[in-house]
Design a protein that fits this description.
With 803 residues, the protein is an alpha/beta fold. It has 30 helices and 21 strands. Strands 9, 10, 11, 12, 13, 14, 15 and 16 form an eight-stranded mixed β-sheet that branches. A hairpin with a 5-residue loop joins strand 19 and strand 20. The protein is globular, with a radius of gyration of 30 Å. The two termini are 48 Å apart. The protein binds a DNA duplex (15 and 10 nucleotides) through helix 4, helix 8, helix 17 and helix 25. This is DNA 3'-5' helicase. It is an enzyme of class 5 (isomerase). Keywords: ATP-binding, DNA-binding, Helicase, Hydrolase, Isomerase, Nucleotide-binding. InterPro entries: DExx_box_DNA_helicase_dom_sf, DNA_helicase_UvrD-like_C, DNA_helicase_UvrD/REP, P-loop_NTPase, UvrD-like_ATP-bd.
Length: 803
DNA sequence: GACCAGTGTTCATGT
DNA sequence: AACACTGGTC
């Protein structure tokens, strides 16, 4: 195997000097970068240099004097993408990228609302609920309304509310057609009231509030429309209805500001959370886009990988139409591996990854992708046992860890004691004698007076009430103690006075949690020093509050009486408030082993936008990928296919596809058939490391057994080209051994055959899945349908074959 | 009210 | 298999 030299073939050198901005850019890219200042739609295929086009355009616009840093807004979906854009831009031009309006939709909305909190009807220090906070807040509402929690599941209601907000619908805008919906709307309303009382907003609220303010306040709207002459939107295919409407507030179609929308309909993988690919077509029509520029030249992957991607996505019907091409040769074939179990799959892939590493590939250039997070565990444990460094993205992220959330809750209470979500999270953690009964009384009192829990403590007398008083006293005294301290000192103080640190020091499993709390202090330190707690969180550039802006129609309320923006930076929030916002908006990677050369594990969704030299796509099985929940509707399968397309196009040099016959799920073994996507890939680009198999008890297994019975065995199949070379035959050994074992058992227990039916006196009819062992050890795995999958000792169980 | 053991539920994807 | 929730006991 040979790997082409890295970096010179695929990574064009970044244009460092400003004069060289347009060097090494292909004609398509050049057309996009230097497009006239009018609405543009760029169809950017995977690996076509999309980010480069975006950043180069921004740099070019500024360099040619068409726009000032303050006159443009660039919006992305992920923090990662926003950060990358800022970094690259900073490398191209000597500008203060932090002050620019470059960020995620939510980050920019947050910044906007921080500036106009009063106009938006928010308290100045409003805090942001993450999804789990939001769910628990909704749970409280449902309880308070004394509704059936089985019928109104907080998670589902949360989804309902978020969906409504993404449609820009307030409770009053929804016309319920049934009792269930009517109640959901009532919960939505009560939840909104509660959020308002507590001074918190959820993710969807950030967007909606920002949109409504622009919609309803003409002076503000016109100010921003004048200010932003250029708007650039990344991943346009992922925008939802509200985000598109939001964009139109900044740049209404009639005014013909230069909206530069970049997207790829083939990479639309967020329909499940409201993304509308249709926004691309709508945009083209509504903004009267005269020319759509397609970026189809791929600089990332070799031909076989690209052919696979192109052919796969060709099976989708609703496409704008686009075909990636490359100048690189065909490269290595796409390798396909069929494993006997998820364990074997993991084992194989880490061996292969090790081999790649030995051949000089950095571990961080190897990615293992899966459809859902649950699949990572087996792979993780295999990597762990083999002693291979790895890094898992997604799953439980840093700011989502229980101990970190506890600490953050205390910190939030310092800023805003009326945050009931935080109050409830820590009021009795560590335990301080405040039980469910007391909390209930407190909640009743709060509800009756329409005040927060914190404000209602005085109303609850009795022994529990005293403990409550002690708790609020603790919060208040901590607030006093931390006046004027640095962020680091504040957190250290809070960890001690709250008793959190003490609790974890005494807890026998608390070491790791203590470490994470230490990590929280580090994160805060890094936030203050490196990031200058700017970015999404705060950093309102001074110009934001300039007298000019106010004169132009901002009510004086924009600059609240009780604060003075920092003379130097214009920052208007305390470091603590800024850090809390940062924590909500950026869940943070799980920072373990950051910086180490480690194999990268992540879901396909989180791999979007990334690229690696070698990519393993695992668990390519029906029901898993495509996921079973998507199979019911046609659009669902198309989205899964796009997801697969995204996965394939992550690979530069090497692509591996693998699947397993059996897999542990929900603690049960499931039997899977290989994904339909295999039938949609070009045969010529694939190389099967294991012989083809159509499924259980058929295909290869049958062919193999036939060959075996002819006495020629595996050899004849190798000769027939079904198994490419003996070196790789080593891989499917478990299977051939299984087949051999099955033959033996079959001989012993006459007539039993894998894939045939069997009858058991107690469980009835079942399908024979596996035969193993001999004599006393002989055992069979049988799927009895409603009785489930069972392992049976053949020396005991009476199994009779059915024909 | 704290703590433990046993039971039930979830594993789609993210700001 | 891992975790959240429930009910019983001290």
């Amino acid at each position: 195997m040979h790997l082409p030299p890295q970096d010179d073939l695929f990574t064009a050198p970044p244009a460092v000097e400003s004069q060289g901005l347009l060097k090494n850019i292909n004609p398509e890219q050049l057309a996009a970068v230097t497009a006239p200042a009018e609405p543009m739609l760029i169809l950017a295929g995977a690996g076509s240099g999309k980010t480069r086009v975006l950043t180069t355009r921004i740099a070019w616009l500024m360099q040619t004097g068409q726009v000032s840093p303050g006159g443009l807004m660039a919006v992305t979906f992920t923090n990662k993408a926003a950060k990358e854009m800022q970094t690259r831009l900073g490398a191209m031009l000597p500008v203060n990228v932090r002050g620019m309006w470059i960020g995620t939709f939510h980050g920019l909305c947050n910044r906007f609302l921080r500036a106009h909190w009063k106009l938006a009807g928010l308290p100045q220090g409003f805090q942001i609920l993450d999804s789990s906070d939001s769910v628990s807040a909704i749970k409280r509402v449902i309880k308070a309304m004394k509704l059936d929690e089985e019928r109104y599941v907080a998670k589902q209601v949360s989804w309902f509310i978020a969906s409504a907000k993404e449609e820009a619908q307030r409770p009053g805008d929804i016309v319920p057609h049934d009792e269930q919906t009517r109640t959901m709307v009532a919960i939505y309303q009560a939840y909104e009231d509660q959020c308002k009382r507590e001074g918190v907003v959820d993710f969807a609220e950030l967007m909606l509030r920002c949109y409504e303010l622009l919609r309803d306040n003409k002076p503000v709207r016109e100010h921003y429309q004048q200010r932003f002459q250029h708007l650039l939107v990344d991943e346009f295919q992922d925008t939802n209805k509200l985000q598109y409407a939001w964009l139109k507030m900044f740049a209404p179609p009639g005014r013909q500001q230069a909206v530069f929308a970049v997207g790829d309909d083939d990479q639309s993988i967020y329909a499940f959370r409201g993304a509308r690919v249709g926004n691309m077509v709508d945009f083209e029509r509504e903004y009267r886009v005269s020319r759509v520029i397609k970026l189809e030249q791929n600089y990332r992957s070799f031909g076989n990988i690209l052919d696979s991607a192109n052919e796969l996505i060709g099976h989708n019907s609703k496409r704008l139409g686009k075909n990636l091409r490359t100048d690189a040769g065909p490269g290595e074939p796409v390798r396909v591996y069929e494993a006997a179990s998820d364990f074997a799959e993991a084992q194989w892939l880490i061996e292969e990854a090790q081999a790649l590493h030995r051949q000089g590939l950095a571990r961080k250039e190897i990615a293992v992708l899966y459809r859902s997070n649950a699949q990572s565990r087996v792979i993780e444990s295999a990597l762990f046992n083999a002693g291979i460094p790895y890094r898992v993205y997604g799953g439980l992220r840093f700011f989502e860890r229980a101990e970190v959330k506890h600490a953050l809750s205390y910190l939030r209470l310092l800023e805003n004691p009326n945050d009931d979500t935080s109050f409830l999270r820590v009021v009795n953690f560590p335990t301080r004698g405040i039980g469910a009964r007391t909390i209930e009384l407190l909640q009743d009192a709060a509800r009756a007076s329409g005040r927060s829990l914190y404000q209602s403590v005085g109303a609850v007398a009795g022994k529990g009430g005293n403990n409550l008083m002690a708790f609020t006293g603790l919060v208040d005294s901590t607030r006093n103690l931390t006046q004027g301290l640095t962020l680091r000192e504040i957190i250290e103080q809070v960890l001690e006075t709250s008793g959190l640190a003490e609790f974890y020091r005494n807890d026998k499993d608390g070491a790791e949690r203590l470490e994470n709390l230490g990590e929280l202090i580090n994160a805060a330190e890094a936030f203050v020093t490196q990031e200058g707690f700017g970015k999404d969180a705060v950093a309102l550039p001074v110009d934001e509050l300039s007298p000019g802006a106010i004169a132009e129609g901002f009510p004086a309320a924009v600059a609240p009486a009780n604060f003075t923006p920092d003379a130097e930076t214009g920052e208007i929030m305390s470091p603590l408030a800024a850090f809390l916002t940062h924590a909500s908006l950026e869940a943070g990677d799980n920072q373990a082993q950051a910086g180490q050369d480690a194999v990268q594990l992540m879901t396909v969704h989180s791999a979007k936008g990334l690229e690696f030299d070698a990519v393993f796509i695992t668990g390519l099985e029906e029901g898993l990928f495509p996921h079973e929940n998507s199979l019911t509707d046609h659009d669902g399968v198309e989205e899964e296919r796009r997801l697969m397309y995204v996965a394939i196009t992550r690979a530069r040099q090497r692509l591996y596809l693998c699947f397993s016959q059996t897999r542990m799920l929900h603690g049960q073994t499931r039997y899977n058939v290989k994904s339909r996507f295999f039938d949609e890939l070009p045969e010529g680009a694939l190389k099967w490391l294991t012989p083809r198999n159509q499924g259980f008890g058929s295909g290869f297994a049958k062919e193999y057994q036939d060959a075996w019975s002819r006495g020629s065995g595996l050899k004849s199949m190798v000769g027939a080209g079904r198994v490419e070379k003996p070196a790789y035959v080593a891989a499917p050994v478990p299977r051939s051994m299984k087949a051999a074992a099955a033959e033996k058992v079959a001989a012993e227990f006459g007539g039993l055959r894998v894939g045939k039916g069997v009858f058991h006196t107690k469980f009835g009819e079942g399908m024979l899945m596996t035969l193993e062992g001999t004599g006393q050890d002989a055992r069979a795995q049988v799927n009895f349908g409603r009785h489930g999958m069972k392992w049976l000792a053949l020396s005991v169980a009476k199994l009779t074959p059915i024909d």
